[in-house]
Amino acid sequence: MRVLIAEDDAALQTEIAAALRAQGFAVDMSGDGEEALYCGNEYPIDVAILDLGLPGRNGLDVLRAWREAGRTFPVLILTARGRWQDKVTGLEAGADDYLVKPFHIEEVVARLRALVRRSAGWSRPVIEAGPMSIDTAAQTVTVDDRRVVLTAYEYRLLEYLALHAGEVVSKTRLGEHIYDEEIERDSNVLEVLLNRLRRKLDPDRSREPIETLRGRGYRLRLPLAGD
Amino acid sequence: MRMPDSLGARLTLALAVVLVAFLGLAGLAVERAFREGVEQAVRENLAVQVYLLLGAAEIDGQGHLRMPDVLPEPRLGTPDSGLYAAIRDGSGEPLWQSESSVGLDIAYPRAVGNGNRRFARAHAGDGRELFALRHAVNWEIHGENRRLVFLVAEDAEGAAARVATFRWTLWGWFVGVAVLLLMLQALLLRWCLRPLRRAAGEITSIERGERARVGDDYPFELRPLTASVNELLASDKRRLERYREALADLGHSLKNPLAVLRSIARDPSAGERATQVEEQVERMQQAIDWHVQRGAAAGRGGLARPIPVADLVRRVGASLARVHADRTIRLECDIPRDAVVRGDPDDLMEIVGNLLDNAWKWGRSRIRVTTRRPAHDGGLALTIEDDGPGIRPDRREAVLERGVRMDENVPGDGLGLALVRRMVEETWGGRLELQASDLGGLRVRVIFPS
């Protein structure tokens, strides 16, 4: 998941970024309203954390501008004041959730995950696809009730595909949502990562949960719960 | 004497005194002039009588005065006619008296100094008031100068009656004019004082929050005052905003370091004292929330606009529904359009936000918000109910105390209900009650007095 942190307090920005990276997010950061607006409009982010008290251009303006530009990624607003007037105005401007400072960093992570899930149409924290079960809160994966141990990047890859199950996800898009830095987005690295993931999920190659569509990308193909 | 404390009454009283004094003095002057005019006419009439008598008088051969039996003025020949005459010599010896004065002992005026003529009041023997003219002449008889004194008198009754009639007419008119002028004055006063009444009315409606400032179209004498009132209102508002901003900034500037401290304390490498640090951070956090939020409450000192409750509840409800999009909670909002609470919209939103947020956290599927107007006062009772677990009666008092949480596992700042109660009590002078709802959960009743 690629998250934009728009927060002007450097210490807090670093803290949140570190915690989110540890939790497997790809992180973009901005400490300024104008810059945050640009990042939200131009980067393929999945979710944003937006401080309402940004310098340059305040959070509410940035949020409204994003929504007017048709950007629909979920936004978690941070407010220091905790006044309901701020919360309601923020939510009416298009935010999806709010947090009042200071907060437990776990709370931020939990809210972000919930927002991403919700925006992908999942209301529960556990995504079940056929024999596979992905717990987005605990970040664990089981296949046929067998725990599969994944590295952070393998998990990110799987979670992104699962949240967009049924869609064809291009290699570029996958790279953008998994890695922070452009330099890491080497298609060979991604292919190696994908192959490792396939081996772990489907050691005997009986199910082929992740399809490769030549020249177009990848698709998670498992029947979803309820199907 | 205590002055009346109304400008209108003062002006009315002052103008009435001036009016009455003016009309009274003018009346006295006119009456006096009229009376003098009447007396002057009587005097002239008496002088004519003297000349007629002089013309009729003759001196015979023995040097005696002779008066004709029939005088040119018939009233002198008629007893008690009101016109009397007598002639005396220089030593005061009576020489003749008119038939009209027979039997009446008239005290004619005496000579004063060397004057030949004197007009004065006189009395008849029976007490009647008279106007009398004494006219002395020197009559040359056989080369010898004799002094004759002609005395004429007339009843004062006629003149007095004319004066009385005139007085009645005069004062009648004056009283009528005074009444008319007083009425006109009352109307003029109303008209002149209307801007003052309007200003008072506008200031009252500012107090009630129905308007933000006094109008600008006042007479120029009042304009400095109304401008000052507006300036005062504006500066009060600015000060309140600055105060709120300063508090918010303080909160903001403390919160980021606290957030960092907290996450450092949570780091596994922080060691065994991390829990203590976190506890202290938590306490600081609560203190900030409590004081900053309470301080930011505007109170009813400034503008108390009527806030439509239904709109506000719906806005907060829609926002919370967005936050809790993964839960299916039905918000039943039964509030009449005209239900209003006077006060600061931010403060009211703080109360509704906290209470609805609690209801959303605890409720299972239903939240109901209703308002009622208690019959005994003009206030409004706002009730928010949910179908959650509710609060046991013996715990209700405790959760209203500062810093007590209902459950540490549900996110919240633990100040919710206590803060709301404080705001309701301090900002509105109202009341907050916790009850059991027939939906199964908690019923919070907030009573805003009128």
Structure annotation, total helices of chain B: 8
| CATH fold-type name of the largest domain in chain A | Rossmann fold
Structural class from helices and strands of chain B? alpha+beta
CATH class of the largest domain in chain A: Alpha Beta
Task: List the keywords.
heterodimer; A: 227 residues; alpha/beta; Rossmann fold; Arc Repressor Mutant, subunit A; 2 domains; five-stranded parallel sheet; four-stranded antiparallel sheet; 41% helix; 21% strand; elongated; B: 450 residues; alpha+beta; Heat Shock Protein 90; 3 domains; five-stranded antiparallel sheet; five-stranded mixed sheet; 8 helices; 14 strands
Can you characterise this structure?
The complex is a heterodimer of chains A (227) and B (450). Chain A folds into 2 domains: 2-119, Response regulator (Rossmann fold, 3-Layer(aba) Sandwich); 126-220, Winged helix-like DNA-binding domain superfamily/Winged helix DNA-binding domain (Arc Repressor Mutant, subunit A), CATH 1.10.10. Chain A is built from 8 helices and 11 strands. Chain A has helices at residues 10-22, 33-42, 59-68, 84-92, 105-119, 152-163, 171-178, 187-201, and strands at residues 2-6, 26-30, 47-51, 75-79, 97-100, 126-129, 132-135, 140-143, 146-148, 210-213, 217-220. In chain A, the strands form 3 sheets. Chain A has a 5-stranded parallel β-sheet, with helices on both faces. A 4-stranded antiparallel β-sheet of chain A has the order 6-7-8-9, with helices on one face. In chain A, strands 10-11 form a two-stranded antiparallel ribbon. In chain A, strand 6 and strand 7 (132-135) form a beta hairpin. Chain A is elongated and about 55 Å long. The relative contact order of chain A is 0.12. Chain B folds into 3 domains: 11-161; 221-296, no CATH class; 298-448, Heat Shock Protein 90. Chain B has 8 helices and 14 strands. Chain B has a 5-stranded antiparallel β-sheet with strand order 4-3-7-6-5. A 5-stranded mixed β-sheet of chain B has the order 9-11-12-14-13. In chain B, helix 3 (223-266) runs antiparallel to helix 4 and helix 6 packs antiparallel against helix 8 (416-428). Chain B is rod-shaped, with a radius of gyration of 51 Å. The chains are: A alpha/beta (227), B alpha+beta (450). Chain A binds chain B through residues 9, 11-12, 15, 19, 53, 80-85, 87-88, 91-92, 95-98, 100-107, 114, 118, 123, and chain B through 248, 251-252, 255-264, 266, 281, 285, 289, 292-293, 296, 315-316, 318-319, 322-323, 325-326, 345-346, 349-350, 352-354, 411, 413.
